[in-house]
Amino acid sequence: MSKLVHAQWSSKMTFVLAAAGSAVGLGNIWRFSYMVGDSGGAAFVLIYLACVALVGLPILVAEWLIGRRGQENPINAMADLARRNGRLPAWAVVGASGVLAAFLILSFYSVIGGWSLSYTLGSVTGRFTGQDADGIGALFGSLLGSPGMLTLWHTAFMALVIFIVARGVTKGLEGAVRTMMPGLVLLLIVLVGYGMTTGHFGEALAFMFRPDWSAVTGGVVLAAMGQAFFTLSLGMGIMMAYGSYLGEDVNLIGTARTVIILDTVIALLAGMAIFPIVFANGMSPADGPGLIFVNLPVAFGNMTGGAILGLMFFLLLTFAALTSAISLLEPVVELVEERTPLSRVAATLTSGVAVWALGIAALMSFNVWGDFLIFGLNIFDLLDTFTSKVLLPLTGLGAILFVAWCLERQSVASELGLAGGTERLWHLVARYVAPIGVIVVFVTGLL
C-alpha cells in the first residue's frame, strides 16, 4: 500500500546530517583510525579517498538517485523504476536484499549499542574508578556472560531507536540528528583538546598520518576499498530510503562529497581523541573492541578527571550508535508502512520488536547459546559475516549496475548535472570501475 504523500526532508542540511549520522557509526570511533595508523598513515588515507571517489561515491549517488526517483521504499522503488524503464521487475530483489541487510545488521548492532549504554552508566556511577585491566576485563566478561543484563541494555537501546523512528522523518529522524550530530562533534573536539594535554598527541598524529608507503600492500588496498564501501552505509537500503525523502533541488554528487568529507573528518578526529590516551597509558591501538570496552575504561578509571572524560566518551559512542541505528530501522519501517495498512507508529513497533527478538538470539551467542554454531559461527558472528560479506556488496553492486546499465544515460546525466568530460568520467566509473571494485571486495571476502 503506497502512500499518496511521501515525507520529505525539511532542508538539505538536515539530510546531510542524517546521511552523515548514518555513516558515522561505532566502527568510525576506533576501526578507521586504527586502520590508518596500521596501514601506512597518510598513504592509507590517500588510497582510501581514491577508493571512496571511485567506488563509494558512485554507489552512494546511485542509491540516492533510485530512492529519489522511486519516492517509495527500496523494494517498490526498484520494481517501479525497472518497470518504467522496460526492465524485469526482478530488480526489486536488490531493494529487498538491502532492507534485509538493514534488519539483520540492526539486530546485532543494537547489542553493541547496549554495551555502550551500560558503559555510559558505569562512567556515571564510578564503576571503572581504580580498576586495572583484569578488573575491567572481568566486568566486561560478566556483562557478556549475563543474558539478563545484555537483554536489559539491548532492550533499552532498541526502545530509544523505536521512539525516535516512530516520530517520523521530520520530528524523529531530523530531530535526533540535529541534536546528536552537533553533540557528537562537540564531544570529539573536547576529547581531542584533552588529547593535546597528554604529552602523546604528537605520537598519535605520527601514528595516524606519517606516510609509510612500505606498509601498503595489496591487502591494504583491499581493506581501504572495503572501508570506503562499508563506512558510507551502502548496500543496506538506508540511502535508498533516505533518498526517497529527497526533493529535486538537491545536487546528489555535491551532497555526497559533503557527507564523505564529514564522515572522514569525524573518523580522523576520533583517532586524535583516542590514541593520545592509548599511548599515554602504554596500551596497544590494535585491540579493536577490547580497546573501547576494556583498555580505555582502565585509563579513564585511573586518570584525573577520568570519570567526566569516560562519560563524554561513552556518550559519544552512544550517539554514534544511535544515529546509525535509526538509519538501519528506517528502510524496514518505510517498507512495512507502505506495504501494509499499519500507521507509522505501528509499523515502527512491529519492525522494532522483530529486530529486538532476533537481537536476543544474537546476544545469547555470548552465553547460553555459545556452543550453538552454524557453519562454524555463532549467531552473532553469522549475522555479521553474512551481511558484511554477502548482502552489502551484492546490494551495492546491484544498485550501481541498475543505474549505470538500465536507466537512460542522458536522463541520469541531466539529473546529476553532468555534461561533456565529467559525464563521460561518471559513465566510465559507474559502469566499470565501481562494479569491478565491489566484485573484487566481494570475492576476496569470501576467500
Give a quick precis of the structure.
This is Sodium-dependent transporter. The chain has 18 helices and no strands. With 447 residues, it is an all-alpha fold.
Secondary structure layout plus pairing:
Elements: H1 12-23, H2 26-38, H3 42-70, H4 74-84, H5 92-125, H6 133-144, H7 147-166, H8 168-195, H9 201-209, H10 218-230, H11 238-243, H12 252-280, H13 289-301, H14 306-339, H15 344-363, H16 379-405, H17 409-416, H18 420-446
Helix pairs in contact: 1-8, 1-12, 1-14, 2-9, 2-12, 3-4, 3-10, 3-12, 3-16, 3-18, 4-5, 5-7, 5-14, 5-15, 5-16, 6-13, 7-8, 7-14, 7-15, 8-12, 8-14, 9-12, 10-18, 13-14, 14-15, 15-16, 16-18
Sum up the structure in keywords.
447 residues; mainly alpha; globular; YocR/YhdH-like; Na/ntran_symport; Sodium-dependent transporter; transport
Give a written overview of the molecule.
The chain has 18 helices and no strands. With 447 residues, it is mainly α. The mean pLDDT is 91.
Output the helix-strand order. Answer: HHHHHHHHHHHHHHHHHH
| Amount of beta strand | under 5%
Distance between the termini: 41 Å
The DSSP helix count reads 18
Tally of strands: 0
Largest sheet: none
Briefly note the structural class of the backbone. Answer: mainly alpha
The stretches of 5 or more residues where confidence is low (pLDDT under 50) are: none
User: Into which percent range does the helicity of residues fall?
Assistant: over 70%
Q: What form results from the Cα inertia axes?
A: globular
Rg (CA only): 21 Å
The chain-level mean pLDDT equals: 91
